[in-house]
Design a protein that fits this description.
There is one protein chain. It is built from 10 helices and 6 strands; from the N terminus they run E-H-H-H-H-H-E-H-E-H-E-H-E-H-E-H. With 229 residues, it is of the alpha/beta class. The chain has 2 domains: 141 residues, HAD superfamily/HAD-like (Rossmann fold), CATH 3.40.50; 67 residues. The chain has a 6-stranded parallel β-sheet, sandwiched between helices. The longest helix has 18 residues. The relative contact order is 0.17.
């Protein structure tokens, strides 16, 4: 039976990858690099240090990390001062469902901990998670399995008793290499053939997770009259 569900954050729980694209377009133009939102696709699932190396490879000496981060923070601060967190469809219902089933939950995100904490609290879902492991808490970025192994250790559960909900190639491979069951809910990227071979499942949205888990025999069957939930 399923003991824990491990959640990526950006692009999985929250529609923040598209927000990041707009923020990086804004920052890139102010740095004289043009629109750089496309770099989100180049850096999906990696921590800031790994992303920094990818930016340097792309732009060389024209890349100024501190100014990029400052402009990005400026854009995000303006956005969140006026808007709620863009929560993905089905997230809150899924968290409630898993909690009622006794499934433990953790956030496993390459994003730095202060940003993760801010979004979870602003979205009103922080209390659903027992712990979080973030990109600034581990030495090696996804697709290395360290971040998932750390989350399993914190929960004191075997990776094989966990599903990992992810939207990126790097995240899915990190989960798979850790021994978790990777379930993809695509956002900006569709799986290639290599990624498809490691998936435990691929769903259209988070609302499909409960039925999927029951179909796989990881949860008790739904009571009569609740089969569609």
């Amino acid at each position: 039976m399923l003991k824990a569900a491990l959640f990526d954050m950006d692009g999985l729980m929250f529609d923040t990858e598209r927000l990041c694209m707009r923020a990086w377009d804004y920052a890139g133009e102010r740095l004289g690099l043009g629109k750089t939102g496309y770099m989100v696709l180049r850096t999906l699932g990696v921590n800031p240090e790994a992303a920094d190396a990818i930016w340097r490879e792309e732009f060389g000496s024209r890349y100024d990390r501190e100014r990029l981060r400052a402009y990005t923070r400026e854009y995000r601060a303006r956005y969140f001062a006026e808007n709620p967190v863009p929560v993905k469809p089905g997230l809150k219902a899924l968290l409630s469902f898993l909690g009622a089933q006794g499934v433990r939950m953790a956030v496993v995100s390459s994003t730095p901990a202060p940003d993760v904490r801010f979004l979870l609290e602003k979205a009103g879902v922080a209390a659903c998670f027992e712990t979080m492991v973030c990109g600034d808490m581990v030495a090696r970025s996804k697709p290395d399995p360290e971040i998932y192994r750390t989350a399993c250790a914190r929960l004191a559960v075997s990776p094989g008793d966990c599903i990992a909900l992810e939207d990126s190639r790097n995240g899915l491979f990190a989960a798979w290499r850790a021994g978790c069951r990777p379930v993809m809910v695509p956002d900006l990227w569709q799986p290639d053939e290599e990624t498809g071979r490691i998936l435990f499942g691929k769903l259209d949205d988070l609302g499909q997770v409960p039925a999927f888990l029951r179909e796989k025999g990881l949860l008790a069957p739904a009571p009569e009259g609740e089969a569609g939930r």
